[in-house]
Amino acid sequence: MSTVVRLPDHIDTLLLDLDGTLLDLAFDTYFWLEVVPGYYGAARGMSAQDALEKEIHPRLRAAEGTLSWYCLEHWSRMLELDLSAIKSEHDDRIAWLPGARDFLHRQRAAGRRLVLATNSHPETLRIKDQKVGIRPFLDAMYSSHQFGAPKEHAEFWIRFRAAEPYDPERAAFIDDNPRVLAAARASGIACVIAVTNPDSSRPPREPPPGYMHVSAVADIT
Asked: How many CB atoms lie within 10 A of CB 3?
């Protein structure tokens, strides 16, 4: 049975992750673990599996938690592929998570400000917005690339709050990444909520200890 979380009445701003919170992370899993290795391997006479295991996975692991890990331009250079074009060609799996749009409608009707705070590269955000129409649901959209630091780092939260001056005592932050959730809490945000089923192609995750959690934003009232 899903856990339901009720937002405190005093919360007036929702800070929202994108991939794995509003959109299904299954697209990103498919893109990075199947599509990209296929293109990379074909260009070098390798199988997609060898490309993934010997070339792509080690590089991804080395960059995890940094801004480069999320940077489409970085990986286009590193892998010598036009990842923007490839992502656009394979955009059919970009999709909202179940109930996400209804959740946004409910929260806007309740008078809350809805702010996207994503690690997605601006070009990735553009492609996804073009495909499923993210912007109309939100009051503001920010990529961590605007601030020179990913959400895992304290610098992001300092710079983000300067651009979007929310009151951390009256804000809630929702994300599926435990390291990001920890950074948001350390920045002073009072209400931090984990999403445990961000990827429809994979089993649900164990909730991170010490956090409120829901299977999906649809379970937040």
From this structure: 12
